[in-house]
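Researcher: I'm preparing a figure for a lab meeting and need a structural model of a single chain. I don't have an experimental structure, so a prediction will have to do for now. The sequence is pasted below. Please return the structure as C-alpha cells so I can convert it later.
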Amino acid sequence: MGNAGPVDEYVASMRHALRGPRGAKRDLLAEARDSLLDAAEAYESEGLPRAEAERLAVADFGTVPEIAPGFQGELAVSQGRRTAALLFLSVPLTAFLWSVIWRVFPETMRVEQVKPDWFGLLARTVDLLQLGVGVVGGLALLALGRGIRRVRHPARLTRWLGLFVWIQTPLVGAMGLMLAAAAQGPAGFTDYLPGLAVALVSDAFSVWQLYNAAHCLRCTRAISALSAADREPSLSRS
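Model: Understood. Here is the structure written out cell by cell.
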C-alpha cells in the first residue's frame, strides 16, 4: 500500500473494519470506491492535484468510524437474508429426505420394537419444530427482502435469527439422537447406505446453518463495536 492514494487507503481501512459476506462486502466497497473516484475526478477537473482531489473526496464522504456502522448494517442484513434462505430451503428438503427414507426402508430393517411412550410425542415435536424453522426462515427471508422497508431494525432481526438457529439446531439434534436410540430402523444406518447418506446430509445442513448463524451474530456485534468507536471521538470532543 506504499503507493496507494487516499481513496485506496480509505477503502482498505473500511475493508478491515467491516465484517460480512465476502461477495456483499466486495460489492459494497466497490461502490464506495467508485463514488470516491468520481468525486476525486470532479475535484481534479477543477485543477486540483490528484492526491489533494482524493483527500477532499474522502473528507466529503466521511470518516471510517462515521460511515462503517451504516455499511456494517447492510452487511448484517445480507448475512441474515442468506441464513433465512438456507433455512427456508434446507429444512423442508431434509424433512422430505427423511420422509422418503422412512417409507422405503427395507422390510428386513423394519423389526418391530416396543418403543417408549414418549416416542410418538417426541417425533411429532421434532416434525413441528422443523416445520417451524422452515416457516421462520421464510418469514425472515420475506422481511429482509421485499419487506425490508417495513422492518424498523433489520440488523436486530438478523441477530435474533442467529440466536434462534443456535438454540433450535442443537435442540432438534439432541431430540433426533433420542429418537434414533429408541427406534430399531434408523439405528441401523451403518448397514443401510441411503439412510447413512441422508444422515450425513442432515448433519452437513446443521453445520452449515450453525456456521451462518455464527456469522449473523458476528455481523451484528460488529455494528455495536463500530457504533461505540464512532461515539468515542464525539464524546472526547464534547
